[in-house]
Amino acid sequence: MTGARALLEVEDIVTLYGGGRKFLGRPRPAVRAVDGVGLALKSGEALGLVGESGCGKTTLAKTILGLIRESAGTLRLDGKTVSGVSVRQARLARTTIQYVHQDPGAALDPWWSIGHALEEALRIHGVTDKGERRRRVDDMLEAVGLDSSFRSRYPHELSGGQQRRVGLARILVLRPQIVILDEPTSGLDLSVQATVLGVLDGLRKRLGLTYLFVSHDLSVVKRMCEQVAIMYLGRIVEMGPSEEIFARPRHPYTRALLAAVPRLEPGSLHDTPALPGDPPSNSTAGDNCVFQTRCAFAVATCAQVRPPLVSVGRQHTAACVRLDEIETVAEG
Known about the structure:
The chain is of the alpha/beta class. It has 10 helices and 12 strands. The strands form 2 sheets. Strands 6-7-8-3-9-10-12-11 form an 8-stranded mixed beta sheet, with helices on both faces. Helix 3 (114-124) packs parallel to helix 5 (160-172), helix 4 (130-143) crosses helix 5 (160-172) and helix 5 packs parallel to helix 6 (190-207). The protein is globular, with a radius of gyration of 21 Å.
């Protein structure tokens, strides 16, 4: 994977919500849902995007997809700049990126059969031949482990795992290069999770897919992804190879997330203090460390300086002004 080209490049992306003022009202600060994020996704790679609820994972994913317009920054798809255009133009320019919703049941029309829903996606994308549509739908249902009898079923007749497979089949009939998976195993029991993850892994190898894997489940990300980006309050605070991140986390937020993972045996990360309170508002973010209000290692400098991502290992970066001290504490 080292020599693979960058299929998607994200540079200093900012996505703002709200701001301005109401009539006769006071000005309201904009919410910086995504705040200067940069990452690269190589062809055939799976990149895990991890963080607490509300950290901006889904907003970043939808900005990459083109459903939300970026406020600043650059996105390049296969070397071509696709940012800086309207939402409609962005979606047209990014047709090779498709999105699997967190709740596939809600994304399916309850009045349409599964066959109708899958074929409708092909109609919208200009596949006019009925036989071709039927072949592609049947092939994709088989690829996700469902037989052609599912064509005539309706969403309410499917289990949670089957709905997720149908949601995956619906976007794979469009033959995307990049698939954004938003919490693909949430709400499923462990046996169904394992089945869904097996399907996803097999499809990536069989079809040469590239995954952006949005999740809060660290065990799933560790299994599925070669690269991990840790996100907090709209920013990437640590990024690198999965093995490196899980074996030697450097940012205090990453250490706290890993320490919170339930396990049967004690681990070295359990000496990390638990995260106090809730994240502050994204509208208060400035030129400082966004994690400093909850960090056990914070000093005065953290409230005055926005730490950049710096190299801490092979393809491993972290954003913290106290990396050396934290590493010394961890080794001790």
